[in-house]
Amino acid sequence: MGKEWYLRVTESDLFKGLDLDVMREIADTCCFEENFAKNTELFKEGHSADDLYILEKGSVDLKVKDTVVATLSQKDEIFGWSSFVEGGKYTATAMSTTDIDVIRITAQQLNRILGKRPDMGLIIFRRLASLFNRRLSQIYQSILG
Q: What is the pTM of this model?
């Protein structure tokens, strides 16, 4: 991967400010640039959660049953965090609503790296918990008005 790739991953909210050697290993072994056409299902509610995604460009709906609970359209938005839970299953279906560019992160490999650096893993899990809390609060607000 080129330097541009490495910089994009390290500048994401999830990884910003982490040890550069750990980030290099994550970028080189866990991260993949992918593009999906409009109306592509990235993952399905109830299926095994294997990957985490960082949105680079486009828009993605997160659906529970047939209800859209969140629409992601901001660069660096993260989804698929169920992949960090051991034996995790996706809690929503992710469907692209436009052509999208994402960084797909294989959670199993990332967890191996973080197992060697639990200090970095703790930082990432705290950031994920914060993102989860914000997203859940937004969903509650949209439901309760």
A: 0.85
Contact between 83 and 89 (Cβ < 8 Å):
no
Task: Using the predicted structure, report yes or no on whether residue 6 has a pLDDT greater than 80.
Answer: no
CATH code for 3-144? Answer: 2.60.120.10
Exposed/middle/buried for 102, CB within 10 Å: 0-12, 13-18, 19+?
A: buried
Q: Which residues contact 25 (CB under 8 A, 6 or more apart)?
A: 113
- What 3 state SS string does 44-111 have? CCCCECCEEEEEEECCEEEEECCEEEEEECCCCCEECHHHHCCCCECCCEEEECCCEEEEEEEHHHHH
Closest residue by Cα to residue 94 from 39, 145, 18, 37? 39
Q: CB of 9 within 8 A of CB of 23? A: yes
Parse the chain into domains and list their residue ranges. Answer: 3-144
For helices 107-116 and 20-29, angle between their N-to-C axes, nearest 10 degrees? 150
pLDDT tens digits for 64-119? 998 998 899 999 888 998 888 878 899 999 999 999 999 999 999 998 998 999 99
